[in-house]
Amino acid sequence: MNILKKPAKQIWINECIFQGTDPHFGLRVWQLTSSPLAADNVYCEQLYTSADGSRIALRRFSRPEYTTPCELWVGDLNTHKTTFICEGFTGLGASNPYSDRIFFLHTSGGKETLCALNLKTLDLQTVLDLGKGSEAVSLAVTADEKYLVRGPHYLGEKKYGLSRISLESGESGMFFEIDEMCNPHLQCDPSSDKRIMVQLNRGMETDEYGNITKLAGGEGATIFSVDIEGNNFQYFPAAAPHTTMLTGHECWLAKTGKSVFTTCDVYTPHGKPLGGDVYMAAPADIKPELLLSGLACNHISAASDGRFFIVDDFKGGHIHIGSIESRRSLAICSPAIVLGRPQYSHPHAYLTPGNKWLVYNVCRGGLAHVHIGEIPEGVLDTL
């Protein structure tokens, strides 16, 4: 039975504010959201968009925790309008950039339901009743959309697990366990129905109640891949001894089977890492390839065609687009980047499929809103 239904009348709201043309970069910018609630574009490692890049998912919330249910909205980039979908959206959701569907957790009355939203038709589907709620907010969906992967499930001491849910039969269960996987950034490889990329926070510490008291130790985070059966474990050549410490931000590079990730090479005078270089590697590679250096790159995403990566520079304040083939990059806009603690204060920039729109967050005065910039015709060809 479908417990979620679309509003009786789907209302599209014109809350958009044109912010003009960036005088330095030529990007025409619109503030897509403007209500008093904070809003963000969910995240940038997975693309929460329709396959044609015309619609995106948005979150609206009054509290900063990802475990707190918030509102799910959709933004139409052709009309610059937004529409409300439902309350109870919890965590980050899962998306396949070549599909119109996103999967997410709906929480109500302490119970969880796995749901799916088609961003084009706005069809809202109840997939599976999951019962009692959990704080495992990281989700990923396999390329064939047959399985959903979820974590981290705290198992005691420093051990965490990943669970697998069959989207066909509803069968679920734990399929992989490992120490120090407190912040997994789960992502399924778009080129494979089986491989999952996972972040491992080496040196993390917890108190007697399982609360994380230290996110990572001296070696910092690294990344590995494992298949949907919990087998074929492989580390990526990332972090020590291959590179400097990771920022903790990485993503699959479309269907190439490779990942792009950022490292910590630039610090504040007080020793806080800002970001650094951009690398690319597959799990089986001996060493990673350097794509960009000299900036304080932090959050990273990849274009769905695999030609470009998108990063924010926490030193210069710009968002950069880089070419995988030529290794050249350009600053595309300057959104007044702030290094705030809340995740919604960070740009989390990504390109929509088709590379027409740059989607990112701007946090001025403490209230985050989603912005979109129209990529000038021919500018990506210069790379």
Largest sheet: 8 strands, antiparallel
Mean pLDDT: 92
Instruction: Quote the distance from N terminus to C terminus.
Output: 50 Å
* Name given to the CATH homologous superfamily: YVTN repeat-like/Quinoprotein amine dehydrogenase
Strand content: over 45%
Determine the CATH topology: Methylamine Dehydrogenase, Chain H
Any idea what the shape is?
globular
**Number of separate structural domains:** 1
Residue ranges: pLDDT <50 for 5 or more in a row? none
CATH architecture identity: 7 Propeller
Report the top-level CATH class: Mainly Beta
Radius of gyration: 20 Å
How many helices? The count is 0
* Helix/sheet category: mainly beta
Number of strands: 31
Describe the structure.
This protein is mainly β and about 375 residues long. The chain has a single domain (about 15-380), classed as Methylamine Dehydrogenase, Chain H (7 Propeller), CATH 2.130.10.10. The protein is about 0% helix and about 50% strand. The chain is built from no helices and 31 strands. It has strands at about 10-15, 15-20, 30, 40, 55-60, 70-75, 80-95, 100-110, 110-120, 125-130, 140, 145-155, 160-165, 170-180, 185-190, 195-200, 205, 210-215, 220-225, 235, 245-250, 260-265, 265, 275-280, 290-300, 310-315, 320-325, 330-335, 350, 355-365, 365-375. Strands 1, 4, 5, 6, 7, 8, 9 and 10 form an 8-stranded antiparallel β-sheet that branches. A hairpin with a 5-residue loop joins strand 26 (about 310-315) and strand 27 (about 320-325). The model has no long low-confidence stretch (mean pLDDT about 90).
